[in-house]
Amino acid sequence: MTLSAKVRKLPLVLGLLALVATPLATRLLVHGDMPDTWGTFPPPKSPDVPGFSGLVFGLGVALALGILSFLAAPQRFGFAPPAPSEGPRVRPVRLPPWCVPGALLAMASWALMWGELPQAAAPLVPFSFVPLWWGFILALDGVVYRRTGGASLVSRRPGAVLAIAATSCVCWYFFEYLNYFTRSNWYYPNDAIFSQAGYLLWFGLAFTTVLPSIFVVYQLLTTIAPLRARFERGPRVELSRATVRRLSWVGVGSLAALVLWPAPLFPLLWLSPLVVLSTSVSLAGGWTPFSAIRRGNWAPVVLIGLACALNYLVGEMWNYYGTPQNPNFWKYDVPYVNVLHVYEMPLLGYFGYLPFGMLCWVWWIHHATLFGVDPAIDVVAGAGPTLTRSADD
Length: 393
Hints:
By secondary structure, the protein is an all-alpha fold. It has one domain. 53% of the residues lie in helices and 2% in strands. It is built from 13 helices and four strands. The strands form two sheets. A two-stranded antiparallel sheet has the order 1-2. It has a two-stranded antiparallel sheet with strand order 3-4. Strand 3 and strand 4 form a beta hairpin. The longest helix has 22 residues. It starts with 9 loop residues before the first helix and ends in a 23-residue tail after the last helix. It comes from Nannocystis bainbridge.
């Protein structure tokens, strides 16, 4: 399934312009200058992030418990019991040629990043991040290939993998851009390993891994039929075009508000771009994970969020034990809730990965549609556009 040729690109262009221009214009109109850290890369730790707030933390805990309750028992929230499975089971096939080499590359890079290899390998430590993640992606893609009988991004659409990687780089550089306006919720303390130009180049390569790693974990989750089925028969929600248009303005307005009050509104860092991009794709006539909710299928939205959280639970573990020679090591300075860390991430921060996963998928759909590339990533039919052997590959 591909998107209609009638998809209009103007809303896509306007949505992208709104994401870039709104923070910049708001900052200049209100303050007349750029943030003090502007132009420094990687961004340094901000000196004025608010400390712990019991009220905000309590609200966050209440929201987190509500999310966990929904994931554990969706029928309490209006979901019907899963339907009996239909159709023949897919017969697993042998692992593809790239799976085992990918796993070996990931394990060797993992050991390198943690300083577990001989001292002679130390000069390679700063360059361990990219092969670690791409090895992980290739290995997991091979597992998806086996479980689906031969359907995966690498096997079906290798050209799309490169396009997703390029989009991933653009996506995360946007968040580094937005981070300048929000007091550096995250920063990279090992900032004296490369030159600034070196950091820009190396981080650009590192950022290519964000979307592919989330997508391959999502694909793996969709192959678990009972997990997928528990979220496929939920309440149906359909928004009118007028409502979507109003939501797009809410997204832009909330992005401006984030720049004005970055500490109290810090969750909007992930929510505002999601609203802006989702509504622009919808107004352009495209499919998003939220489109499936019209017929009660919440599985795409839920599973992409879970995939992101699981993916970065592993990523946070890799990051935490990295050596001081790892330029990609990151830390957090999140307003009000920077306590109870699991690795470097505050416990409540893991719930922020749920909307971030949705945002990553919508970002890819937006860019793929804008440049005429089939945005399909699903390996299991029934949720969204599924992988096909496309001409662009």
